[in-house]
């Protein structure tokens, strides 16, 4: 019988046990985080997730506009969900905090986000990045995307992908700042569409609006004949994210 004498030399049983143990605890931690976050946010409906740069200071036009949009959304009955950090996230929470509906912060410690901002009615601290990202999607009836960097582009791309592929229900995706987004949209339309990497109809998954009141009206218009409560089919999609 053939015996591979090299296998015992290559495998350290103690190392395998340690790695497996760490992974098992990590999976349990992720499950616990999902469950706790879901319970914490369960009553926040309808809600709008707002994304944008962590680096914008109070007084910057993007900060001020985000605060105004969030205040209008809050007074219109929407909980406003942000990343809970500084910059545009703080502006979104700040506007909602001053309004009638909850300001929600989904916090995570990052180099440019040193702790949560002070304008949160409901907050949750995440350890796992992708668990946090799922909560932005799961509880949102719309996305409002302010100018931002890699993180903002990541969130926008994920939202578009989930809707495009049918893994998430169709909801408004609103880009704020026509001048900021123009080059990006021109590139999508001029490169990805002609090359067949996305369909021409996919450009219709998002719209650009700069007027805060028009953003609120666009969200209400989208739901005018369908209501904010997800259908059974929509809930099935969300369970399979």
Structure, explained:
- This protein is 49% helix and 11% strand.
- It is an alpha/beta fold and 241 residues long.
- It has a single domain, classed as Rossmann fold (3-Layer(aba) Sandwich).
- It has a seven-stranded parallel beta sheet with strand order 4-3-2-1-5-6-7, sandwiched between helices.
- The longest helix has 29 residues.
- It starts with 6 loop residues before the first helix and ends with a helix.
Distance between the termini: 49 Å
| CATH architecture grouping | 3-Layer(aba) Sandwich
Count the DSSP helices: 9
Per DSSP E runs of 2 or more residues, the count of β-strands stands at 7
Structural class comes to alpha/beta
State the share of residues found in helices, binned by percent: 40-55%
| Spatial order of strands in the largest sheet | 4-3-2-1-5-6-7
- Could you name the CATH topology? Rossmann fold
Main features:
single chain, 241 residues, alpha/beta, Rossmann fold, 7-stranded parallel sheet, 9 helices, 11% strand, disordered N terminus
Short description:
With 241 residues, this protein is of the alpha/beta class. It has helices at residues 7-10, 13-41, 61-75, 88-97, 129-138, 150-164, 178-192, 212-222, 232-239, and strands at residues 47-51, 79-82, 103-107, 122-125, 142-145, 173-175, 207-208.
Write the layout of secondary structure elements.
Layout: H1 7-10, H2 13-41, E1 47-51, H3 61-75, E2 79-82, H4 88-97, E3 103-107, E4 122-125, H5 129-138, E5 142-145, H6 150-164, E6 173-175, H7 178-192, E7 207-208, H8 212-222, H9 232-239
Parallel strand pairs: 1-2, 1-5, 2-3, 3-4, 5-6, 6-7
